Every structure is written in structure tokens, then in C-alpha cells.
């Protein structure tokens, strides 16, 4: 007997439950109009027989694929090297799994991939999209809007033309940066440098703004743009020490950048925190706790951001829940003190 022949059918479930095939179909596919006692009989029969709905047939009824695209606007070398993306994907995956949805991961190596992603989304393969790590000149938002796919963004979108209503989830990047720099200033540090992230991303720009709100008219030599990677931060830290050898504190735009800064400070014979205090941003435990010394940092709940993104999108897709007005969810940050400051 083949696997197909032995698989329980809709008719077998109907016979076991003592109801019509149409009733089973409505229950299995989430339809309305079936009395609760019959719903329970059908569910019990499904469980007893081990019935698995045919996804293609179910999609014809529900107009849903139970699949969500996660679009990360970064090359795979960056995605798989940065724990931030693993944490966010874990939060998304947990929420989608809890609602029996599949995650479809789409990465963009370069501009040539944007049209491919847009074609896939427009092709009706998924019910919606979760998009994050956008850059200011990224064409993806416009392409996704053209595909007509419900979307939730990770991070505050950078466009301000007022033509697109968006739902997004972000952390209080500016407030967290203010708290980090205030801590350093409160420790008596007066030459506080900042290693930024890529300033074509709103998270990095907001953290720079928070730094400047505390520092006021900052010395331009104390701010060096980087790229959220350890290697980029190492180059930035060397530049800072060459330009301002008397600096006594560094606020790095993320924990990976802080880890790169710590390595260069150690190479140059600077003691942390005695000579130079260091604060990061993210509180990614594999990085922050294993740094030498352990890293003082601003904590954002990255996994929870992913969960909320998925939750908001699923609510938009649920026809039983009225669609809420577009807007942003901004999660609070907290300062975590360790040995680096």
C-alpha cells in the first residue's frame, strides 16, 4: 500500500465524526457556521485518524498560504555572522510556529536581487512579509508596496514623504544612546567618542542623535562612521585613537562594534575601563558577556521585536480582527552595567 493510499481522507474523517464532508471541510479550514459539538467531534476524528489537510486545497478555500516571507536587506555573509539577526529570526519563528505558519527567508545580496524578491512576493506564494535592516535608499519598500503584500517593518522606516502608511516595530534607539552617554559622563569622562553604525539606517542615525543630545556641540574628530561589524569598528577605533589620543570613553553603536573597539584598545595598551570606558548597544549575551572585560551595554529585546512584528502581521491577516490604524511600536531599552564602564 502506498503512502498516498494509506493517508486518511476528508471522507474518512466525516465518516468517523458522523457528519458531512462539507462540515469537515469548514472545520478544518477555519470556516464559520458549525455548531460547537460538531466542531469537537470533527477535531476528535482528525486527531484519532491523524488527518493532515491538503494545503493546496485548503488555500483555495481560505485564500491563505500560511506562509510568511522574512526579507532581510543584507547579504548572507552579514546575516549569518551577526547574532542580532538570529535573535530576531528566533522571535519571528516562535510566533509563526505558534500560529501554524511557515517562515520563508529571503536575503538580498545586491540590487539585482530586489526585483527577484518583488516577483516572488507578487506571485502569491506568501500571505505577508516581515522586512528589516533597510537602508535609506533601498527600493524594496516601494517594490513590496507594488506587490500588494501586507507588510510589517523591523525598525523605523527612513522615508518621510507621507505617501505610505506603515506598521513597524523598533526600539528606543535615541533614548538608549542618551542613557549610555549620560552614564559615561556621570563617570567623569569628558572625551567621549562614538563609533556609529551605517548612517543610512535609521537605528544608527537615531543613536548618533542620542549621543549628540547629551554631548551638545561634539568634536567631529570624536565621531567616526562604521558598519555594525567588528572589523569596521576596529578601523574606526584606530582612527579615533590617532585623531584623539586623549579620549577616555567610547560609545559603540552595537555590541559587535564594541567588541572590535575593545580589541584595538587592548592592542594599544589602553586599560578598560581605567583608561577608556566602553559602552555598547544590544546586549547580545554571546558577545556582551564574553567580551574582555564583560560589556556594559544598552539592552533592547531583539527576540521580542521579532515576536511583535510577526504578531502584528498575523493580526492584519486575520479577517476576524478589525485592521488597526498603521503606526509604530517602540520598545523601551535598559542599561546593563558590567565591567567595561
Please provide a written account of the structure.
The chain is of the alpha/beta class and about 350 residues long. Helices cover about 45% and strands about 15% of the residues. It contains 15 helices and twelve strands. It has helices at about 5, 10-15, 20-30, 35-50, 55-60, 75-80, 85-100, 110-120, 140-145, 175-185, 200-215, 230-245, 255-265, 285-290, 300-315; strands at about 65-70, 100-105, 130, 150-155, 170, 190-195, 225, 250, 275-280, 295-300, 330, 335. It has a six-stranded parallel beta sheet with strand order 2-1-3-4-5-11, sandwiched between helices. Strands 7-6-8-9-10-12 form a six-stranded mixed beta sheet, with helices on both faces. The chain is elongated. The termini are far apart. Residues about 1-5 have low confidence and may be disordered.
Provide the succession of SSEs: HHHHHEHHEHEHEEHEHEHEHEHEHEE
User: What is the helix content?
Assistant: 40-55%
Class by SSE composition? alpha/beta
As a percent range, the share of strand residues is 15-25%
Name the shape in a single word: elongated
Strand order of the largest sheet: 2-1-3-4-5-11
Amino acid at each position: 500500500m502506498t503512502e498516498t493510499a494509506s493517508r486518511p481522507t476528508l471522507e474518512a474523517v466525516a465518516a468517523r465524526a458522523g457528519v458531512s464532508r462539507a462540515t469537515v471541510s469548514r472545520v478544518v479550514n477555519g470556516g464559520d457556521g458549525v455548531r460547537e459539538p460538531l466542531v469537537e467531534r470533527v477535531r476528535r476524528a482528525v486527531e484519532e485518524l491523524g488527518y493532515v489537510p491538503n494545503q493546496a486545497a485548503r488555500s483555495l478555500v481560505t485564500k491563505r498560504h500560511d506562509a510568511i516571507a522574512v526579507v532581510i536587506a543584507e547579504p548572507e555573509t552579514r546575516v549569518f555572522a551577526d547574532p542580532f539577526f538570529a535573535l530576531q529570526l528566533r522571535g519571528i519563528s516562535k510566533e509563526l510556529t505558534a500560529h501554524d505558519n511557515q517562515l520563508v527567508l529571503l536575503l538580498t545580496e545586491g540590487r539585482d536581487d530586489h526585483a527577484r524578491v518583488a516577483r516572488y512576493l507578487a506571485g502569491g506564494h506568501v500571505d505577508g512579509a516581515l522586512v528589516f535592516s533597510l537602508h535609506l535608499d533601498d527600493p524594496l519598500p516601494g517594490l513590496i508596496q507594488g506587490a500588494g503584500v501586507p507588510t510589517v517593518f523591523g525598525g523605523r522606516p527612513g522615508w518621510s514623504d507621507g505617501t505610505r502608511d506603515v506598521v513597524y516595530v523598533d526600539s528606543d534607539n535615541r533614548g538608549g544612546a542618551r542613557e549610555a552617554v549620560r552614564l559615561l559622563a556621570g563617570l567623569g569622562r569628558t572625551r567621549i567618542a562614538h563609533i556609529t553604525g551605517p548612517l543610512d539606517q535609521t537605528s544608527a542615525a537615531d543613536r548618533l542623535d542620542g549621543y549628540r543630545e547629551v554631548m551638545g556641540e561634539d568634536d567631529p574628530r570624536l565621531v567616526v562612521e562604521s558598519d555594525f561589524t567588528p572589523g569596521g569598528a576596529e578601523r574606526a577605533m584606530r582612527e579615533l585613537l590617532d585623531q584623539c589620543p586623549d579620549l577616555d570613553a567610547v560609545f559603540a553603536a552595537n555590541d559587535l562594534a564594541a567588541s572590535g573597539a575593545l580589541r584595538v584598545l587592548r592592542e594599544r595598551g589602553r586599560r578598560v575601563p581605567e583608561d577608556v570606558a566602553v559602552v555598547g548597544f544590544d546586549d547580545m549575551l554571546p558577545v556582551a558577556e564574553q567580551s574582555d572585560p564583560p560589556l556594559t551595554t544598552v539592552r533592547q529585546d531583539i527576540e521580542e521585536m521579532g515576536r511583535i512584528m510577526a504578531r502584528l502581521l498575523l493580526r492584519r491577516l486575520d479577517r476576524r480582527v478589525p485592521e488597526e490604524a498603521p503606526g509604530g511600536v517602540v520598545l523601551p531599552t535598559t542599561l546593563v552595567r558590567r565591567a567595561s564602564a
